[in-house]
Design goal:
The complex is a heterodimer of chains A (923) and B (406). Helices cover 7% and strands 52% of the residues of chain A. With 406 residues, chain B is mainly β. Chain B folds into 3 domains: 161 residues, no CATH class; 87 residues, no CATH class; 96 residues, no CATH class. Chain B is built from 6 helices and 23 strands. The N terminus of chain B is likely disordered. Classes of the chains: A mainly beta (923), B mainly beta (406). At the A-B interface, helix 7, strand 30, strand 52, strand 53 and strand 57 of A face helix 1, strand 1, strand 2, helix 2 and strand 20 of B. Strand 58 of chain A pairs antiparallel with strand 1 of chain B. Chain B: This is DUF4249 domain-containing protein. Chain B: It comes from Gramella jeungdoensis. Chain B: InterPro entries: DUF4249 (IPR025345). Chain A: It comes from Gramella jeungdoensis.
Chain lengths: 923, 406
């Protein structure tokens, strides 16, 4: 009996001993030891044998102290943030496993448990999952896919779905890659990285095939075995694909998508097919076929946009202001079509970064020179020729572009018999030079220089000459994916001269000169996918020499006089937010603060407020020192616009703009004339201002092949300049005595249908618009038409243009152009009278009548050269007839007193069809 | 002759000559309102000054709408009043001769149809006199040679504005005058040759200038002296064929008056196709004081001076420079009647009054005409009447001021 009891006790003790032995406690401390050496120390101290592969053990430094802790706990702690699991076998051996866990029992229900399992979606959380994670090894040995193990198994694993997160970075620059698609091939589930390159994707436990997709970076696939939540970073190199050439149709939905109302873009490449006078590719003439933009006639150089005067358009060439963008009375454009990259016209909502004119902005940008190979283009026409070449300077980095145009009309005139023509001069040329240099992906510099010169006889004894000269410098810096800035410096110089030479004592030379220099800094910041900011500042210094006269030769008794120089400083700061409220609504909200300060040196006259301003009502003078501020004007300009998608291809846009203009044309001519001068606002002349409201519907049809839009606008303006009858503006120091500042009002509806692609393409534009002016000053000489609103000089209610192009074959295409416009208003005499023995006409009411309507048809036929691959260059012939109907559209009706009697005359510019042949060569 | 017009520099530009055109346009009457037109001018010349009053008429009408029932008077600043009476055709003359005094203001008053029109107070702007009148040979811009008559005006004013008028008198010497003429017997329808002893060869004609000739010293560095070409006659002009006289009247006017005339010319001048002045109502210095009626015109007070010169074209040109008479006188040799009862073509020519006898078939004129070989020719050679009888152009009475030799 005593033997059996002691045997039980012995077994008990043995059991007790066994248990105790498994609770092996150790005291150990580590001071900056590596994990491997820590494990080795534990091995020694505990007497347990550890089995593991050295490459599994991460490089981790341990500095910890354990006092009487069980080995299990120590191991668990040491391996806590690693993917190593451990299993203690037979109290003597410890097996370390990577990711996986060693299970020592089979799960419940392994043998035929029938449990009702409802179908569950892939990624429901909070699910009990006791199943171990299994995966296939090497089912496709040919695929070189890296296998990554994420996380480590846990005993009480209650989740089926885990989260994998991480960053996608560029391999070279370590910059985050945004909008990278990360797709799980098994489930088809995908996410994309945000602006910081961060992603989170839910994956099932076990094997997953994860791929990245990106245009900019390489696509990689990895096999990811998920054991628990974890992180995985992708370091992707840039994707390189060598392409011949890529054509990107990036503006397919711009018509309906863009938040700006009244924005038009001219396709520079395709305008070569549009028949125009004398074979010239003219961006400005094409602009007049768009709704809302018209001219007062063929011989007039300026444009009227939405019922605004010609000086209310800001014409920019690479951000420099161009004062006279036409040659020879507007018949030829001064902008070389071969060097122009893009032309955008803003006539509704003008973005906040532009300012200084009321009606529109014509933003013309030259294209960058090709940095890889030499290219050129030339055209030869009957009166003018153009040439443009692109030269790479540093391959792939910088290029130089040169362009030039000239006429040979002088040679034509000299060969004519008519003496008045023989002794006349008519010539012009223009040249452009652009250098663009890309330092690296983030820094780019470009500089443009432009010059144009016109010279022609206006009467047999006077020659008129004008010149434009522009210089610009752009430096673009890309700070990062979200911030980009551009620094722009421009200088624009315009002057004209008149040389009058007769045999008597009064030969003279007179002229005008304006020079402006601007510094502009514009920043773009992408805050998020919802907000994009555009902000900046600009400053412009004007120097105007309003006029001078001097003797032309020593016999002349003309004295040397010049009007005092005008100086002004125009400054602006703007901030705009492109706010994507949701998928349907896009708001473009901008505010621009502009100011103008008129600077001395000047002598300002003060007038009696009870009489009209003239030489007899001067009450005193005020003197200003050089650069002393005389008066400051300014205020906020709101540029608000919104686009709302009613349907996926139909959008509604609305906008409100208010603008200020500080520089004005001095002209009492009915239409724009080359001797118009520009003057700055000052003590007496207030800046012009305008408010425009517009609303439009935009729809694209047939997957963006056809764009249509209908837009209405209402514009009110104030302080518009007009002049008293018989105003003497030539070399007048005190122009305020001749000026009347009045109100304007214009409204209209514009319809545009455009088919951009296909064999038959073109556009149809129609606008109904009215434009009124009201001059109601205090005194009788400042009141016109009883102080009521009357039609302005460019009020043309109906304006219809049809521009079509039909491509018969790859080489032949045929174009037709039809224009119809209501005649412009004229002042018709209401009677005649006799004075000093001659008859004169009496004018009392202004613009009460209209000249006959204008319509014109032009046709052209284009022949492209053959399409052989290996040839010197590509040729293009254009045969066109301008004014096929031969209608002598009256440009003006005027009344002259000849030999004491009144006669009425009608003048037209082109009264016969004008055929032209021009030859283009591209190499 | 070209005057500088600082405001308009454009003639027809080249392209319009090539491709465009200027056509006559039909004047359509669109309705008139009543506008009174007053031309008032007084100078420091002691005489009966005149004021002209009319009204604007329809565009299509011809003739001038003279106003015959207005009350016209001028008030001087010192209280003097000069009344005017209507002498016919809208011309009102002062009852008494007077002259504008320097330093005195004058105001014109016209009352018509119950409306009173008053001008601003005007006065003599400055005194000036005609210095030298120079005649010279000149070639104008079109390459034509001729005689230019220029005037040097002197004034003490810093800035001078002048308006010139002239009266030219030229001598006419008919080249083909003979002592005979042809007259038509109406009853018998034939022509007989008779003596013509009356003076038909030498006549004189006087023409007044029509448009105002303006000159200003603006932009001129001339210290009070201003030279201006008043008249230019190309050598082809028949007025300068023989002795010629020009009476130049010079008025120194105010800048506002100058502006009025300049604008008047601009609004009515050959408007350039490419840039036209904005037309409007030209306001002078006359306004209606009661009512809304518009008044056109300017009341001017100016100092005046006049001077006459005589020009002998032979001092500047040779006979060969002038066109030959047969270049501007067409000679005609009518034929004989075809049959006995056919009308005599000679009758037709003489009856028309356009032609007259120059010589018979034996005269030197016979060689000057190109005739066909078969045309039967009549007995007499005819020429344009103006080349035979100078009375069709002028008067045989020599003007009082005419001095034949200097």
């Amino acid at each position: 009996m005593r033997k059996s009891i002691s045997l039980v006790i012995f077994y008990f003790c043995v059991q007790w001993l066994f248990a105790q032995k498994s609770e092996n406690t150790v005291s150990i401390s580590f001071n900056n030891s590596s994990l491997i050496s820590a494990l080795q120390s534990v091995e020694k101290k505990s007497g347990l044998k550890l089995f593991y592969a050295e490459e599994w053990i991460p490089d981790k430094q341990i500095s910890k102290t354990y006092t009487d802790k069980p080995v299990q706990d120590i191991l668990a702690d040491l391996l806590s943030d690693t993917v190593i699991n451990f299993y203690i076998l037979d109290e003597e051996q410890v097996i370390l496993t990577r990711n996986s866990m060693i299970y020592d029992r089979l799960p419940e229900g392994y043998f035929g448990k029938q449990a009702e399992r409802t179908v569950q979606s892939d990624f429901e959380e909070g699910e009990s999952n006791d199943a171990p994670v299994f995966y296939n090894t090497d089912n496709n040995p040919n695929r070189e896919i890296e296998t990554v193990r994420i996380g480590k198994e846990k005993v009480n694993n209650s989740r089926k779905v885990f989260q994998l997160s991480g960053y996608a970075l560029d391999k070279k620059t370590a910059e985050p890659i945004s909008n990278l698609a990360i797709i799980s091939e098994n489930s088809g589930n995908g996410v994309s990285t945000n602006l910081d390159g961060y992603y989170e994707i839910k994956l099932r436990a076990g094997e997953n095939l994860i791929s990245t997709r990106s245009i900019t970076n390489e696509n990689i696939t990895k096999r990811v075995i998920i054991y628990s939540d974890g992180s995985l970073n992708f370091n992707l190199a840039e994707s390189l694909e060598s392409l011949g050439e890529v054509q990107i149709s990036s503006n397919a939905t711009k018509n309906i998508d863009n938040a700006n109302t009244g924005e038009e873009e001219i396709d520079i490449e395709n305008i070569k097919n549009i028949p125009l006078v004398l074979g010239e590719r003219d961006i400005m003439k094409v602009a007049t076929t768009l709704p809302g933009i018209s001219t007062t006639g063929e011989g007039s150089a300026g444009f009227n946009v939405r019922g605004g005067k010609a000086d209310q358009n800001l014409i920019l060439l690479d951000e420099a202001v161009m004062y006279n963008p036409a040659h020879f009375f507007g018949l030829f454009s001064a902008i070389n079509p071969f060097t122009t990259g893009s032309a955008t016209i803003y006539k509704g909502n003008i973005p906040a970064r532009y300012g200084g004119r009321l009606s529109s902005v014509f933003d013309i940008a030259t294209k960058d020179s090709d940095t890889r190979e030499f290219q050129g283009e030339a055209s030869i026409g009957p009166v003018t020729s153009s040439l443009a070449i692109q030269l790479p300077v540093v391959k792939e980095k910088s290029g130089l572009m040169l362009g030039g145009r000239s006429t040979y009309s002088d040679w034509i005139l000299k060969s004519l018999d008519e003496p008045q023509l023989k002794n006349s001069t008519a010539s012009f040329y223009d040249g452009i030079l652009k250098y663009n240099h890309e330092f690296d992906k983030n820094n780019k510099l470009s500089t443009t220089a432009y010059v144009s010169d016109d010279r022609f006889s206006i009467t047999s004894d006077s020659i008129y000459n004008y010149q434009n000269r522009l210089l610009t410098l752009h430096y673009t810096h890309r700070f990062n994916d979200r911030n980009r800035g551009v620094l722009i410096l421009t200088n624009s110089d315009y002057k004209f001269n008149i040389d009058y030479d007769n045999n008597l004592q009064d030969s003279f030379e007179s002229g005008y000169h304006i020079n402006e220099t601007e510094v502009k800094f514009d920043m773009k910041h992408i805050l998020s996918s919802k907000h994009q900011f555009d902000y900046g500042v600009s400053g412009k210094l004007y120097n105007v020499d309003p006029g001078f006269i001097k003797p032309l030769n020593s016999e002349s008794s003309i004295s040397d006089i010049s009007l005092s120089r005008e100086q002004g400083l125009e400054a602006a700061a703007w901030f705009a937010d492109n706010f994507k409220v949701n998928d349907e609504l896009l708001l473009s909200a901008g505010i621009r603060f502009s100011s103008f300060t008129s600077l001395g040196e000047d002598q300002v006259r003060l007038y009696d407020s009870n009489s009209p301003k003239n030489d007899n009502s001067v009450t005193g003078y005020e003197e200003y020192e050089p650069n002393e501020p005389i008066v400051t004007y300014g205020g906020p300009e709101f540029r608000l616009s919104a686009r709302y998608y009613i349907l996926s291809d139909l959008s509604l846009k609305a906008s409100y703009n208010n603008t200020y203009q500080y520089i004005h044309t001095l002209s009492n001519n009915v239409t724009v004339s080359p001797t118009d001068t520009y003057r700055l606002s000052g003590y007496h002349i207030k800046p012009q201002k305008a408010n425009q409201y517009s609303l439009g519907l935009f729809k694209n049809w047939s997957t963006n092949e056809i764009e249509t839009s209908i837009e209405g606008y209402y514009k009110t303006s104030d302080n518009l300049l007009d002049f008293k009858t018989g105003a003497n503006l030539f070399l007048n120091e005190f122009v305020e005595t001749e000026v009347i500042q009045g109100e304007g009002k214009s409204y209209g509806v514009e319809l545009l249908l455009k088919k951009k692609t296909g064999d038959f393409n073109g556009w149809f534009s129609y606008s109904y618009s009215r434009s009124f002016l009201k001059l109601a000053g205090e005194f009788a000489e400042e009141i016109v038409n009883n102080g009521e609103f009357f039609a302005s000089n460019f009020d043309k209610p109906h304006d219809l243009s049809l521009v079509t192009n039909y491509k018969l074959t790859q080489r032949f295409s045929f174009s037709a152009n039809f224009v119809y416009q209501t005649g412009r208003p004229i002042t018709y005499p209401t009677g005649k009278y006799n004075y000093g023995g001659s008859e004169y006409v009496l004018y009392s009411q202004r613009n009460q009548f209209r000249i006959p309507d204008y319509y014109r048809l032009d046709l052209s036929f284009n022949l492209e050269g053959n399409h052989k691959l290996e040839k010197l260059g590509h040729t293009f012939w254009n045969f066109s007839v301008y004014n096929v109907l031969g209608r002598n559209n009256p440009y003006s009706v005027f009344f002259v007193t000849k030999d004491g009697e009144v006669e009425a005359k009608q003048a037209s510019i082109f009264s016969i069809p004008v055929p032209t042949i021009s030859f283009n060569f591209q190499f | 002759m070209k005057k500088i017009n600082f405001r308009r520099f454009f003639g027809l530009a080249i392209l319009t000559l090539l491709l465009g055109c200027v056509e006559p346009y039909e004047l359509k009457n669109e309705g008139t309102e009543f506008v009174i037109v007053i031309e008032g001018f007084i100078s420091d010349e002691f005489k009966n000054h005149e004021v002209k009053v009319s009204s604007a008429s329809d565009l299509e009408s011809s003739g001038i709408n003279n106003i015959n029932n207005a009350d016209v008077s001028i008030m001087a600043g010192n209280g003097d009043r000069y009344d005017f009476f209507h002498t016919g055709e809208g011309v009102y003359r002062s009852f008494n001769p007077f002259r504008a005094e320097e330093g005195q203001t004058y105001q014109l008053e016209v009352i018509h149809d119950g409306v009173t029109y008053l001008s601003d107070n005007e006065q003599i702007y400055g005194m000036a006199e005609i210095g030298d009148i120079e005649t010279s040979r000149l070639t104008n811009d079109e390459g034509a040679a001729g005689i230019a008559i220029s005037v040097t005006s002197n004034s003490e004013n810093d800035v001078q504005f002048y308006r010139y008028e002239y009266s030219e008198t030229y001598k006419i010497v008919a080249p083909y005058t003979s002592g005979y003429k042809l007259i038509v017997d109406e009853d018998v329808q034939n022509v007989t040759i008779v003596d013509a002893p009356e003076e038909r060869k030498v006549c004189y004609n006087t023409i007044e200038s029509v448009a105002a000739i303006l000159q200003s010293s603006r932009f001129r560095d001339n210290q009070g002296e201003l030279e201006n070409v008043i008249r230019f006659l190309p050598v082809s002009d028949m007025r300068i064929r023989h002795r010629y006289s020009l009476l130049i009247k010079q008025y120194l006017i105010s800048p506002d008056a100058y502006n009025f005339y300049e604008t008047l010319e601009e609004l009515s001048g050959s408007q350039n196709v490419f840039s036209q002045n904005q037309p409007g109502f030209l306001k002078g210095n006359i306004e209606a004081v009661n009512g809304d009626n518009l008044a056109l015109g300017y009341f001017e007070v100016a100092s005046s001076d006049e001077k006459r010169i005589f020009v002998d074209p032979m001092e500047y040109f040779n006979v060969t420079d002038f066109p030959e008479p047969n270049e501007y006188c067409s000679l005609v040799w009518p034929g004989v009647p075809m049959r006995a009862d056919s009308p005599d073509p000679l009758v037709g020519y003489i009856q028309s009054g356009e032609y007259q006898f120059v010589g018979d078939r034996n005269s030197e004129y016979a060689d000057m005409i190109d005739i066909g070989p078969d045309t039967p020719l009549g007995p007499y050679i005819l020429a344009n009447i103006s080349c035979v009888d100078c009375r069709t152009i002028g008067t045989t009475v020599q003007p009082e001021f005419w001095i034949e030799d200097e």
